[in-house]
Amino acid sequence: MADEPIDVMVLGGGIAGLGAAWRARELGRSAVVYEARERAGGLLDHFTVDGFRFDQAVHLSFATEPRVRELFDRTPHHTHPSDSRCFETDRWLKHPVQNNLFPLAAADKVALLKSFLARPDAPAGDDYESWLRHQYGDAIAERYPLRYTRKYWDTPAAQLSTAWVGNRMRRAELDEVLLGLVTDETPNTYYTKEMRYPKAGGFRAFIDPLIADTELRTGHRVTAIDTAARTVCFNGGAPVAYRQLVSSLPLPLLATLCTDMPAPVRAHARQLVATSIDLVSVGFDKPLVSDLWFYLYDESIWASRGYSPSVKSPDAAPPGCSSLQFEAYSRGLLSRFEPEALKANTVQALRTLGIARPEDIVVLHHCRLPWGNVVFDQGMETHRDAVRGWLADQGVRTCGRFGEWDYLWSHQSLLSGWNAL
Ligand SMILES: Cc1cc2nc3c(=O)[nH]c(=O)nc-3n(C[C@H](O)[C@H](O)[C@H](O)COP(=O)(O)OP(=O)(O)OC[C@H]3O[C@@H](n4cnc5c(N)ncnc54)[C@H](O)[C@@H]3O)c2cc1C
Description:
single chain, alpha/beta, FAD/NAD(P)-binding domain, Polyamine Oxidase, Chain A, domain 2, seven-stranded mixed β-sheet, 18 strands, 31% helix, binds flavin-adenine dinucleotide
């Protein structure tokens, strides 16, 4: 065991852990960040295949907070309009669909509008399905968001709470729905008007200055934590002592690592579920026309969402080439997709979407993210608070998307780390 305890020991070298170390430095304390992988960055990191660089899922920044902007704006970046579209079986609709139904057949428009006008005045229950039916009416809810929920959350909407919704779902307004039925010249109602992305180096470039300032121990996987003794073991080695522990590791994982966590608290941790994500990354030997990002309602396409790395920044692909990445979601750590079948489904999807032919593809790559989005099962907060409460009682601060166990964007994860001290 080291003679002198680490003053602030931070577990996880994603943006939240880096934010916690930043705050520690500001407070005049010394912090060391321990990261299992060979590089810092966590979900904001990227990988490269045959000259094509891919982030790990869409990643665009719409941060407004001065502290975050002060960091991110040090990196030269592109600014994109936040326009996106949705694919429904045989047609593209602007996002959000309920405000952009113009391309539908007249009879469909009448049916959706009648159902919208007859929507319930209040949700029938606290669950997400009731909320959707109340917002949009049965016909729109069933044709679009309920369908999308099965793909994106891999969970029935009736099982989910609405705690995560915030500004992620546009509330239905009669004027907006009517306008979108009669014209395709509708305004962009997305919750942010612009999306920023580094000109070079992928999304991670936004946090490169922070990484450069951080004392990092990469290749250090936490294998045991003893909160009573205030020690952590890495890669099965000897205990390392700390004065203050900050963790950005996923709570269910942390629960398995804390050797002194009581069984009832562990039982709460086992109730916490996140989605995992299969990423299919595709490189093309020619420039292709694509949206910055898009939603896929069509069930014959297994991915829920796609985006173009080379539209985010041309430096993501070799000259004259272009790229896309598709995200397919599963509830829990195990995938519901077989990788080769998912790749074949993606190639077929490219045809269906009218974006590319198989002969245009020069890179077709699959990988997995074990921790994607926190699932807001009804009552989840009780379990989360029990786990975080016990950890807080032991003096362990938890931060970030998986330490707070919340639907945090990158800027929120950074501030979560900052606020942990
Ligand atoms: C599909 C998807 C799309 C997203 N799109 C956007 C977007 O467009 N814009 C945006 O702002 N945000 C986006 N986000 C959110 C953003 O990715 C997160 O808020 C942020 O990256 C979370 O950072 P974190 O540090 O909390 O977690 P992570 O980045 O997961 O960091 C945790 C770190 O802990 C490490 N670790 C795990 N286990 C151990 C162990 N045993 N020992 C040591 N280290 C360990 C991991 O390797 C990792 O580096 C998206 C997220 C997802 C999933």
